[in-house]
Amino acid sequence: MRGLNQTWAQRERGHGRNCALRMLFILVLWVALALPARAQIPLTVDEAERANYLFDHGTQGGRLASTIYRRMPTMDFAFRFDAGFIVRYPLRQFRGKKSVVDIITRVTPEGGVPVFFGEDFKLPAIPAEVDPGGTEIECSGGFSVGEGRYQVAVLTVDELGRSYQKRWSISAVRSRAQQEVPEAVPAHTVRPIQLPPWDGKLEPDGTGIRLTVLLDVAPINPNVFKMHAWDRSFLMVSLGSLLQQTPCAAVRLIAFSLQQQREIFRQDHFDASGFLKLSQAIGDLELGTISAHTLQNRLGWVDLLARLSNQEVIAQDPSDVVIFLGPATLLVRKVPQEMLKPRETTSPQFCYFEYYPYWRAGNELADSIEHLTKARQGAVFKIHSPGELAQAIQKMLKQQKAGNEKPSPGS
Q: Would the pLDDT of 84 be above 50?
């Protein structure tokens, strides 16, 4: 906030140059080059007034080279319309020193008052003698809206007062299939993307099921190698929905990255505090950074999947159900059967809640986790919408109740 006040004060005094807007309020984002995602907070009234002036009058430091890509509203698994943006900056313009780049987002409902969000993030120092070529650094931000039309403006500013902004319109409308979905955000309303936390509530006296969730931490778009704000939101919201709708006696949570070939979080007695720690672990995940060992061991992800599966099968006190949860991947190689330890009991039952975004409809090839689930005589549920997730959970519960009967694949 010190930088925002300084920029405003300099403009009031008529200074020709502008400092970057230093704001402590920041939007959920993912930045390449190991910059972590952070929590989102809207601007205060005073801060919004100052930011609005910069939107309308600009800065005097010239143009900041950047490209802003829109993300149109889509309904998430918390029944909200999430929208947002990606900003990419050519890295060579920041050579010679550490830099700070700031983003302000203004979202105005049709016939309403604008809502502002702000963020700042530090860029690593690029030595002046190093030419990064065409390398770009990327960040993303998002917000939630109810049904209606909105005007969106995004302004980005650096420490030299260079700036760039882009404006566009969005419209959030429920489809025919979504008409029965409850209204999570009122019409013509703007809110920050907030992750509804799981309260950790378990069934009394152990009457629920013992559940293991193997969370595949990956972008929704399998062709992307960065976690964006909406990817993190999707994972946490879908996990929260699963746990809220499943009567659990105990929960074990293991989050893993196939790209990095490792576990990124594990808690055997998963609870509400663990839910928040998991969110932080996902936000800190650096998918853009791959270790030399991972590059040398191209099929290490096969070992990882086999190990995760085997741990559940040979556990002394196995779960009743093991659920793989996450977006479909482009990995299609099968885990060799000789790598899979045989069952010693009928538990656990395996399921795969496999999410497909709408743009992959009609191109739903079986991925490696699907092959593994079927090798474990498990059920695969292909999820395209929040409603299908709810249906899959109910089918899973019915199959679990049926005991040792072989689960039939979901649609």
A: yes
